[in-house]
Amino acid sequence: MNQEQNSSVLVSVTILDKELKFACKPEEQAVLRASAQYLNEKMRDIRYTGRIVGADRISVMAAINISRELLEQREAYKLLEQNLNERILSLQNKIESILNKD
């Protein structure tokens, strides 16, 4: 294997004022940083409500909220895909109908 394929970089991110380091592939750094920033924002939002105390509980609540967002997006994508497939089928039927007239 190529040495470059096995290489990883150490990426430092801050979540709730705590610095964490992760190893990742060089091309994944931007996604890791964006993901950590998104998580940090969600956790800060939860912490600032004052209803949940403790980093563990805040992280679990953030994970649940992010999971809910993901599931909602998946469902929206499924509905969009279904709608698009129905429209494509309708257009195919119209095209076939027009071609069969000739």
Structure in words:
- By secondary structure, the protein is of the alpha+beta class.
- It has a single domain (3-101), classed as Cell division protein ZapA protomer, N-terminal domain (Double Stranded RNA Binding Domain), CATH 3.30.160.
- 71% of the residues lie in helices and 14% in strands.
- The chain contains three helices and two strands.
- It has helices spanning 3-6, 29-49, 55-101, and strands at residues 9-15, 18-24.
- A two-stranded antiparallel sheet has the order 1-2.
- Helix 2 (29-49) crosses helix 3 (55-101).
- The longest helix is centred in the C-terminal third of the chain and has 47 residues, at 55-101.
- It is elongated.
- The chain starts with a helix and ends with a helix.
- 4% of the residues are buried.
- The model has no long low-confidence stretch (mean pLDDT 92).
- Judging by the overall fold, what is the CATH architecture? 2-Layer Sandwich
Order of helices and strands: HEEHH
Provide the residue-averaged pLDDT: 92
Task: Kindly give the count of domains.
Answer: 1
Structural class, from secondary structure content? alpha+beta
Helix proportion range: over 70%
Helical stretch tally: 3
Chart the SSEs and their pairings.
Elements: H1 3-6, E1 9-15, E2 18-24, H2 29-49, H3 55-101
Antiparallel strand pairs: 1-2
Helix pairs in contact: 2-3
Keywords:
102 residues, alpha+beta, Double Stranded RNA Binding Domain
Structure summary:
This protein has 102 residues and is an alpha+beta fold.
